[in-house]
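Hey, can you fold this one?
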Amino acid sequence: TPFGVMLVVAGLAGFGGGNFASSMSNITYFYPQREKGWALGLNAAGGNLGAAGAQLVVPVVITIGAGVTLQLPLAGWIWVPLILVAIVGAALRMDNLSHARADFAASVAAFREPHLWVLSLLYLGTFGSFIGFAGVFPKLIADQFPEYSQIHLGSIALSLAFLGALCGSLARPFG
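Sure. Predicted structure:
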């Protein structure tokens, strides 16, 4: 894959991160203070389930697709219909915050708050680590525990690696 294409794909991936971040910030308008932590945890768990879902579903699609065609790089296109449904749902149903307004001055003032930078670095490290560890977990299992690295369902060999991201995602609301 040419480097320019990778840059474009990486830039487009930022839209997903921005969408996730905006969903987290909108939680404050829907829940009272005492319930915000649980609501944020549930929303984050839902967002993190994507790593586990991809590790479970994509190998199945590749295996099935390999029987039909050898165009394995096209396996990622399985997400396009779901993305389109999400886009339509968001366009039709997500304009429901009539009292929420962006306060640019408050946002700029937040940059002067040292805790913002500490928490941002902490979140960058922890969330980045989660994504990184979830991505490398299949390789770790295959290298260190080859006898336990897969379960076979017919002609499909599923990696058990999705369990790491799944457990991490499901535990997140309790943190």
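The chain has six helices and two strands. Let me know if you want another pass with a different chain boundary.
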